[in-house]
Amino acid sequence: MTGGPILTAAQMRAAEQAAFDAGIDDYGLMETAGAAAAEIIWRAGHKRDALIVCGPGNNGGDGYVIARILRDRGVPVRVATLGESRTVSGQRARAAWGGPVEDMMTAAPATQLVDALFGTGLTRGLDDAVAARLCALVGAAAVSHAIDLPSGVETDSGAILSAVPRFGTCIALGAYKPAHLLQPAAGHSGRLVLADIGITVSSAVHRLGAPILSAPAADAHKYTRGLVAVVGGAMPGASLLASIAAAHSGAGSVRRFAVDRPIVGPHAVVNRRIEAPEGIGEALADERIDVVLVGPGLGRDADGRARLAAAMNAGHALVLDADALTLLGGEGARAIPAGAILTPHEGEFRRLFGDLPGSKIDRARVAARQSDAVVVYKGADSVVAAPDGRAAVATGASPWLSTAGTGDVLAGLCAGRLAVTGDPFRAACEAVWLHGEAARRAGPAFVADDLLGALPAAIAARL
User: CB-hemisphere CA count at 13 Å for 246?
Assistant: First the structure.
């Protein structure tokens, strides 16, 4: 389920230093990195003419290696720079290139543009004139590649430090960095490719990969596959969406406890009308229930608060979403039962945990530790974080997910996968991936109901 480790700038420097301490030569690592990137560029552009823009540091050194290798393969290559190389390895790479070096500010564009100006560790933006020139060169190219990171983004937060063009491909060297996956920086690359540069990297934070799911056992029945209870409230459509998603997720049975009269929905979802909030506690006393989902359409009045309290006191595994998170906002992480899954969007997250410092990954990990819960910090760059420090970052979310009800579907998926697996972190990761895959299959202009129809095919693809 892991799609590759994510390292901060400091962690990447430490991994490189460990490689040097083990006997790998600094310049040898540059040659390996440049060769790996050149292979990707070669496969994409073959012999189309290329302009490599090189910075003064080791990222620029990688660029000189790329230029030399592509030239040796018959590519018409030109190199442009902002000035002299300032690192020993960069100077060696420039000498090994041995060809002409143009001024980036006056260099003519090419069919392929390779940005090797600044990579991991940039702390300030490019000068306005340099940023504008880079944007112009990328805009004039048919194919563009950023080496390690697009120049002008902050590695650990994904912040934009100066104007950054959109590249066709970003080639991550050795490991993904937070900026590859976090917005807004992630939006400045169309395709993300990881290049192996021959060093060992490890991290508790990973890019979210496709899960491996299992079909039910031959002797399975509806209760062994997991029973999900959904506590409804003032908005019946939301709890119904969540219930259907849970039913499609692999859970064996779904019960929806609602205040409304039964509304149209799958007959497989058992609807039970419970008007009085105190009746929820009795309904949830069934020991066969594995997971309780509360929040979608719950309402924020006294009845909603009473239903939430009953759900939290029932002693079952919990998924808390939407109105449940808002009602808990004033009480903070202290009120959340250990082991729950929380699915906040940005506003709900801030109400629960305040303005935490650091990147979105940092904030999610702190929130998970404080609450002793798995946190699904939703958005275009959703982060799933566990109390033990593990985290997974999802990429490529469809912008069409920004419509009403899609969060309810995700909450239902979390509850269903938790009922199946019994593992909150695994369940949340699987749910986020399936949610994104269903959106991809649904195509443009879908509504939340359309995601439900796409879920069986998304699950089938991972069996």
Answer: 36
Tokens read off for 254: 């779904």
Q: How many CB atoms lie within 10 A of CB 122?
A: 24
Reported as a single tens digit per residue, the pLDDT across 285-320 is 999 999 999 999 999 999 999 999 999 999 999 999
Residue range 89-123, pLDDT digits in tens: 999 999 999 999 999 999 999 999 999 999 898 99
- CA–CA gap between residue 182 and residue 403 (Å, rounded): 21
Both tokens of residue 412?
């239902």
Provide the 8-state DSSP code for 333. Answer: G
Report the DSSP pairing between strands 2-5 and 205-208.
Answer: antiparallel
- Average pLDDT, rounded, for the chain: 94
Q: Which H or E element spans position 423?
A: none
Helix (H) or strand (E) holding 194: strand 189-195
State how far the alpha carbon of 9 is from the alpha carbons of 167, 177, 200, in Å.
Answer: 21, 7, 15
Q: Residue 47, Cβ neighbours under 10 Å: how many?
A: 13
**Buried b or exposed e, range 389-404, using 16+ CB within 10 angstroms:** ebbbbbbebbebbeee
Does the predicted model carry a pTM greater than 0.85? yes
Instruction: Please report, for residues 232, 283, 402, the alpha-carbon distance to residue 265 in angstroms, rounded to integers and kept in the order given.
Output: 14, 21, 23
Which residues fall within 8 angstroms of residue 219, CB to CB, at 6 or more apart? Answer: none
Specify the pairing of strand 317-320 against strand 341-342: parallel
Q: Which residues contact 60 (CB under 8 A, 6 or more apart)?
A: 54, 81, 85, 90, 93, 94, 116, 117
To the nearest 10°, the Cα dihedral for 389, 390, 396, 398? -80
* Alpha carbon separation from 184 to 35, 155, 156, 193, 392 (Å, rounded): 29, 12, 12, 18, 18
**Residue 311 class from Cβ within 10 Å (0-12 exposed, 13-18 middle, 19+ buried)?**
buried
What's the CA gap between 406 and 461, in Å, rounded? 21
CB 190 within 8 A of CB 215: no
Given phi > 0 = left and psi -120 to 50 = alpha, else beta, which region is 231? beta
Burial of residue 456, with CB atoms counted within 10 A of its CB: 0-12 exposed, 13-18 middle, 19 or more buried = exposed
Tell me the C-alpha distance between 446 and 248, whole Å: 18
Residue with tokens 């649904």: 442
